[in-house]
Amino acid sequence: MNLVPAWKKGYTGKGVVVSILDDGIQTNHPDLAQNYDPQASTDINGNDDDPMPQDNGDNKHGTRCAGEVAAVAYNQFCGIGVAYNASIGGVRMLDGVVNDAVEARALGLNPEHIDVYSASWGPEDDGKTVDGPGPLARRAFIYGVTSGRKGKGSIFVWASGNGGRHTDSCNCDGYTNSIFTLSISSATQGGYKPWYLEECSSTLATTYSSGTPGHDKSVATVDMDARLRPDHICTVEHTVLAAGICALALEANPTLTWRDMQYLVVLTSRPQPLEKESGWVVNGVRRKVSHKFGYGLMDAGALVTLAEKWTTVPPQHICKSQELIEDKSINPGTTLDFYMDVDACGGTLNEVRFLEHVQCKISLRFFPRGNLRIQLTSPMGTTSTLLFERPRDVVSSNFDDWPFLSVHYWGEKAEGRWHLQIVNAGNRHVNQPGILKKWQLIFYGTSVNPVRLRTPNGARSTPWKSPLNNIAFPTQPQPLPQVSNNFFDTSDYFKNFQNFPNVYEFSGSDQDPIVSSLDGKKVRDNNSQNNQVDLDLDDEQSRDGCDEQCDEQGCFGRGPAKCIACKNKRMDKTCVSVCPPRSYADSQGVCQACHEACETCTGPDQRSCLTCSPGHVRVIDLDICLQQCPEGYYESYADKTCIPCQPNCASCQDRPDYCTSCDHHLLLYQNKCLASCPQNSYETDDYSCAPCYETCLTCTGGGNSSQCVSCPVGRFWHEGRCVRDCPAHHFADRRHGECVECPPGCGECNRTTCLSCLDDWKVNSKGRCVAETSDKCDVDQYYDSGLCKPCHSTCDSCDGPTEKACLSCASPLILQGTKCVGKCDKGYYSGRESQLCEPCLHTCSRCLSKTNCTECRTGLQLQSGECLSACANGYYSDKGACQRCYMSCRTCSGPGRDQCVSCPTGWQLLAGECRPDCPEGYYKTVYGCQRCHYSCKNCPGKIRYNARGVRLKYRYF
Ligand SMILES: [Ca+2]
Ligand SMILES: [Ca+2]
Ligand SMILES: [Ca+2]
């Protein structure tokens, strides 16, 4: 990974802070202790500041990594060895229940101080899960990239996953599939893919893992919490290693933003050491990229060299295509092709001409989902696989607005025809066609050439003269020369980089002394550090006739540009009374440009906006301006704000409580996210509720009339159906709403007593029907063809020879149907007064009495002796039995106090907990607690203030 050149340049991570979000780190290790940074550390599991791991055998990997790191100071296989002067902290968070709130606390720890967060966890790597961060973690990501590192953005280095042995796809993991995370895969020392590698199009680059054969095998058996990826010796190291390399780049250039870092990794990673593995393609800007390794092995030498010369990329534009509602059926055995012509928001503020990330948001239903392969081809001809087949994914059938991410189009143009392909490529049998409901493309990138390097003498090449000039990327796919293997030979790295035809070309020679950086952060020249105007020594100084904007020191000529110093503010070299719009006065009184996202502001960065620029929307709870509302928010068009969806909604529309998808497998029903489906509906395999057949009250499935569980008043359950009249020889049990079969020979009955008998039968003294012929014989005999024959020994009376022809039993046996048994079988109970085994209610598989079930039929939930299709409010289902929710929850998904899904009236839901009121730092809305502005400790709600106490001009509900 070419570390020596970076170290030779003197970069060791000094001044850069890295935090490892895992199960803790060994803070007192002799070699780690001197770099240990308590401000980059906390213990969420232990609720204290010391992230020292528990020494109980299960939580070794943080410790082990720290140990291995420390063992070799220059160990090139561990991140801290890589950046051996970086400050290192750790967050202990995986050694306990990991939920949204825990994740958000870790991701949001001290973002002003921590530069790089390293994480290697996410949804279960079982090859069938599709899940991502919850609302709080999502917000922590957005806040991190927009406001962390004083607005330059936190760097989240993320492992692409370890589910290779379950053929998992990292694009089904919403953490690594996020644009905010720098996703890192791993390779063996020999340059091959390790057995646990997951392939996907969101992986950016690769580092070596220190995996050794034999070692790898043992870890497959480690049993861990479902939220965790299986423990592995490489899991931590390879992301920590990438984090370490990022730390070197940040030391080389502390102004790098989170997007700059991704650019640098794309541009400097090397495919060559990993080309023994198949699957490399050359994209439209002639870079090799792979689903296994992204853009290749990270190269620390090249990264710091490029970082030194790097100029912050222009602001991110986000262009959303239309949402194409297809509603096309996906037939087994076919390949479906869909096309979309996009203009990349040309001519608007959102225009994207140079791509970074591309998301393809898809809603579809197909069973089994794991059979599908989804591919997307760009206008420049690059095909990226958004989803590989996952043979184990046979439990679910849907993707709901899932934003598949590809980084393979980086640098390409967005405009043109995109081609989406859905292939039923797996081996599983498919019973019925699926449906592609809709898809949408979201382009992230810039409208101007993003790559502008500083020339060696320190001046910058002229940035973006005109958006129409200097289009550096080829606009058409052309036959291209192969990328040579020594292209990234680091000895001559930069020369090659410059000379490489047409790729990320930077050009121009006009040097502008006052270059403002593209995010609006003014780069001041050395002469204008304060409010003093440059003095021209030849000019005569005077105190008379000076412009009114000059202060008492006077001037050296007429007009506001000739002041010695300014009375109020200064813009460029002119004194002004107030700074113009789209600027603010810095501490020296000099007007500086606002961030591009701000129309008016109090500082240079994105979170200092007072009002947003045209084409921008304000994310109200984070108080930042963005081009588009992020996931989990909806846009209020009237006041151009992004309002968070209600807790539990993954996405919503028009209102916080009008959910269009749900978090963490809650059920979507009538645009609400519920813990269980209401009566008259049942849970489908894609986590929504569908109505029962009209005659059922509750049901286990829909569509046809034979999946009823219980019936409305006036109907009776009979073999899965709800009927108005029970069939012949059945008793309509009004109390229990079911039809009960009469005893043998009965025409009509009343529970267990015959009221009338069939022809040729008559009621005997015990209220049972016996054959007319029976009184020709003794009680324990039956009549057959003119002869009296003995009953089976278990019967007291009978109408045939076998044990299944009893009409009554010899004491102490009891009658179950037509058989005498010592004890009632499963599904029957013995009534206390009658010597009969009576059938349980149709919903029970075991019972003590008609109304006291102890075990339910499959798919039903046992609640206080009743078998229901769903647990009552206040209960959740634990393996078929309803258990009580924590006392503060109205409904819940588990027993914990933070597993509430809804709250009692008047209570507030926050991070899964119901509280009588919103905690400090939040304020109350009808949709739950919302976070106060980051500068407030507490806030009243409707009126919100920015950092300087200025009242903001927007309305909240
Ligand atoms: Ca602790
Ligand atoms: Ca995974
Ligand atoms: Ca990512």
TrEMBL record:
It holds the Pfam family GF_recep_IV. It is found in: Membrane. Residues 29-60, 516-541 are annotated as: Disordered. InterPro entries: Furin_repeat, Galactose-bd-like_sf, GF_recep_IV, Growth_fac_rcpt_cys_sf, Kexin/furin, P_dom, Peptidase_S8/S53_dom, Peptidase_S8/S53_dom_sf. Residues 312-449 form the P/Homo B domain. It is a single-pass membrane protein. Keywords: Cleavage on pair of basic residues, Disulfide bond, Glycoprotein, Hydrolase, Membrane, Protease, Repeat, Serine protease, Signal, Transmembrane, Transmembrane helix, Zymogen. It comes from the Eukaryota. SMART domains: FU (SM00261). Its EC number is 3.4.21.75. Residues 36-45 have a biased composition (Polar residues). One of its GO terms (molecular function) is serine-type endopeptidase activity. Signal peptide: none annotated. The keyword Cytoplasm does not apply. Its main location: membrane. One of its GO terms (biological process) is protein processing. Belongs to the peptidase S8 family. Furin subfamily. This is furin. The lineage of its organism: Eukaryota, Metazoa, Ecdysozoa, Arthropoda, Hexapoda.
